[in-house]
Every structure is written in structure tokens, then in C-alpha cells.
Amino acid sequence: MADRPEEIQGDAHWRTAGDRIQTLLEATSAGGSAARERAEQLVREVVELYGAGLSRIMAILDDPALVDRLAADDLVASLLLVHGLHPHDVRRRVADALDRVRPYLGSHGGDVHLLEVSGDTVRLRFAGSCTSCPSSAVTLELAVEDAIRAAAPEITSIEVVSAEADAAGVIPAESLLAKIHANGAGAAHWCQVPEFAELAAGEVGGFVVGGVPVLACRVGDQLYAYRDHCPACDGSLAGAVLHRGTATKDPVLRCPRCRSHFDVVHAGLGLDDAERNLQPIPLLVRDGVLSLAVPTEPMDTPA
């Protein structure tokens, strides 16, 4: 069920609270060092007060199911983490974070396995078509890495173990992402798009998010987002609709201009030409707010 508008606005408001507090603290510097010190002390007192209150709440609760519900709420979980009160260890939090992004990975025909959490390092292995999908590295950075950092801020290193021969060894995430950044495909920022949730099942909508034309569609309960660009005719997909595929039970998107067909459920695969695929854009719920990973650099037009 989609979040109610007031819930989305509330989550978005609190997500940026830290930035607003920092801005206010910086503004107090205009009153001199003494004013700044008093403001910082005030913030510390408030944080410690609410930390003490949260600690007592967690001590009073004796229902594991209720504790799990609190830990599953993004806002509450972030506060518990700040005060060192989160009931789950780092491995459990990382595993839960990966579970939340698995539907997105599944839309690319892939999966991710948690191999090990050692100190501040997480080791992962991708499976399925994620290992060869051209957007797999972007998925790693913008979906998997983002989810892990939010759930376990103490993690400072993510390593990807090759799914091929063991001789291939470990691929540091930073090395993989560096290649993507060099092609201008990995840099992105998250934009909140709660309006996407208003799409009805089977509906396709065009949006401009962060200056990037985006096509979003809903298949059942799942939302998918792609760059608004047909790789076959080099035109916009505005006016495209979903059709029932003949070779697959999943709906396909048909370009209204050149009539090319694409599998929106499986990473925008070109059904008429496997070399011409739509460009998927990660679309995830972050802290209760539906968000899109908008590239900060222009996306290259596929050949």
C-alpha cells in the first residue's frame, strides 16, 4: 500500500532535519564563538535527553515483535543507531537492507548474497544477470551501497566477490565504480518522487526529475523507471503504453513511434533487438519516501 501524502511529507521533512540543524548552528556563528558554543551545548542537551528517553523505552519493551517493528521504521531506526540502541547487530541490519533492495535487483534478473561482515567491511556476491547487466555497477552504488550505508553507518568498505572463478578474487567496490564514473554513468543523486506512487496498475507516466526525462510505469504492485529515450528510433517514449507480450507473460512497453518492444520487468530488455535496451534508473523507497537516482551527468545515448 502506498504511503499517504502526509506520511511522505513527514518522512521527507525529518530526513533533512540534520541539515537544517547544521545550518542553524552555522548561523549562530554570526553572534560570536560564545553564541555558537551555547547553541551546540543546547543541541547536545536535547540529543542526550531524547537518547535517555529512548533508552528507557527500549528497556521497558519486552515484546520482540514490537521491537522488530520499531527497528523496521527508518526514522526510528536511525535514531536508535545514533544513540547506540538498535536491537539488531550489524550483520542483521545489512541482511535486512539487502532484502529491501532485492525486488529492484530481481527486476534485472539478478540477486545479491551476503558473504561476510568482518569489522567495518561487507563482502557481497552478485548472482544472475546482475553480473553482466550494463547497469549492475550503478545498481551496486545507488541501491545496494546506499541501503547498507543507511542501515549500518559503521560500515566503511564494501567488497564484491566475483561470481566467476575464484582466481578472479575480490573486486573492491571502489575499483568497479571508478570505471563507471569514468564513463559518466555512475554519479547520481537521489530525488524524492512520491508522485510516482500515484500511477495505477498498467499505467505509464512521463516525468522530468532533476532535469532528466523519465518514464515510469507500474506493473502490479511494482514500479519501474527508465530514461525517456527509445534506443531504436532515438526518440521520446512519450505516449507509450504497456501491452501483453506474446513470448512472455510480462507486460511489454511499445514505442509509439517505431513500434519497438521492451521488457520493462527485466531491465528494459529490447525484445526486437537485444542490443538496444532501455536505460533503467534505480527507484527505491528511502526512509519511507519513494526516490529516484537521477544521474548528475548526462546519460549517454546508446548505440
Automatic annotation (TrEMBL):
Function (record text): May be involved in the formation or repair of [Fe-S] clusters present in iron-sulfur proteins.
Organism the protein comes from: Mycobacterium botniense
Residue ranges occupied by any Rieske domain in the UniProt entry: 191-292
Annotated keywords: 2Fe-2S, Iron, Iron-sulfur, Metal-binding
InterPro entries named among the record's database cross-references: FSCA_dom_sf, NIF_FeS_clus_asmbl_NifU_C, Rieske_2Fe-2S, Rieske_2Fe-2S_sf
Descriptive protein name: Rieske domain-containing protein
Membrane-spanning parts: none
GO biological process: iron-sulfur cluster assembly
Signal sequence segment: none
Any matching Pfam family: NifU
Domain of life: Bacteria
Gene Ontology MF annotations: 2 iron, 2 sulfur cluster binding; iron ion binding; monooxygenase activity; oxidoreductase activity, acting on paired donors, with incorporation or reduction of molecular oxygen
